[in-house]
Amino acid sequence: MLLATAAVLAASPAAAETPQRGGTISTVLSADIRSTNPGVDRDGATDIVHQHIVEGLVGFREDLEVGPMLADRWDVSPDGKTYTFHLRQGVQFQNGATMTSAEVKWSWDRLMDPATKWRCRDVYTGDNGLKVESVTAPDPDTVVYVLDRPSAGFLYNLARMDCGGTPVLHPSSVKPDGSWDKPVGTGPFILSDWRPGQYIELTRFDGYTPRDDAMSGYVGRKEVFVDKVRFNVMPDSAAKLTALQAGALDTASLESQDRIQIQDNAAFEVQSSITPGWEALILHSEDPILQDRRVRQAIVMALDRAAIAEAVTFGGSKFSATPVPEFSPYHSQAQTDALPYDPERAKALLAEAGYTRQRIVMTANKRYAEMYDCAYSPRLDPLGQWERIIGPQPRKIWKDPRAIDLLAQANATTDRAQMQAVLDRIGRPFTEEAPAASLYLHASDYAVAKRIQGFKVWPADAPRYWNVSVAK
């Protein structure tokens, strides 16, 4: 449910030169991909690779609004419940077939089949609000979605990277028995080799049909100048830094401490962008100890969150009281209220709650260093940020009826002023109930070898290797 408009805070990319064709870019992932099945068995590293292979009707622009990709344009009915997508013509799949509305509908039906186990199926079933009542293909160039209600988040959900961008695939992506085989998409790269635990290699799709409009985020004109991109799997940050300094990598995401080491290296440019990736300590309110909100409040007030943000990011990020980024038009002063750092008050709250030093277990994720340091992962906008933790689903940790109702109100309007008012109201119960200790918004830092031209970081924190070339 992504409704943010973000100002890109990236450093300027290397000076533009005439792109040269050919060459291989060597880059790195901190973890291997989970599968080749977009939006199904996935995580952040997997999404990065998939978004080079597949595309959807829409995608995120540089400003994190939604733009057309496989759709040329769309119309919305006056009641906000019917979306008519007019498809681009002449788009080819990676097997040479021409894309039509039939493949768009087939892809949607497959994703919505419970057997597929698409991550985002429950967004459209009506179980949590919005229901897509029908998807039809009245002619080869048109697809019509009918919703049961207006939805501010519909297009943003279609674009979500964790949903695989709602990928349009050719039916040959599955075997005759319906089981998954490999992605046959419309993207600018083809998956040519995957050696688990070692690397993933993508090859330029020479039959790719680029858009005419300027590149922006995941949409616009995509031209592939390089022959291949190799994503090397390197979970160890020290090994990654060594490979980078030895010239074995052309680009690499940098953890905060590594940014300090590499920023003065003349062989590289360091690019940075604040992202909506929210880092927080999640406090499960259904836990026998944490169900008392005084205990949750005490934990929040016992943490010097500003100092944690400064230390963990080596000054790259600052404390944020909310998951809504400052660069979002939906960020406001009303959302910046936070429980203060007050260890003495924290002790008093624990005493009031009858806490007697029972053990509290913290679970973190070692696949990504900063998630291990303080523990969470990214969505791009206000509704998306809140939707990750608010809701009745088992994976959601904030089941407060007030918050659930406010989120539903926000998603049911397309009026920006109404949306702002509702988002501002979510902030108060968030502070009172303390379902999380908000820490900071993640900064995306990349080292880019000087021979690489056209690479640019953006708030989505996802590298793109189209429109990127290797100087010879």
TrEMBL record:
Domain Solute-binding protein family: 65-360
MF terms (GO), sorted A to Z: peptide transmembrane transporter activity
GO terms, biological process: peptide transport
Subcellular location: Periplasm
Origin: domain of life: Bacteria
Gene3D superfamilies: Dipeptide-binding Protein, Domain 3, Periplasmic binding protein-like II
InterPro entries: Peptide/Ni-bd, SBP_5, SBP_5_dom
Gene Ontology CC, one term: ATP-binding cassette (ABC) transporter complex
Keyword field: Signal
Family from the record: Belongs to the bacterial solute-binding protein 5 family.
The protein's name in its UniProt record: ABC transporter substrate-binding protein
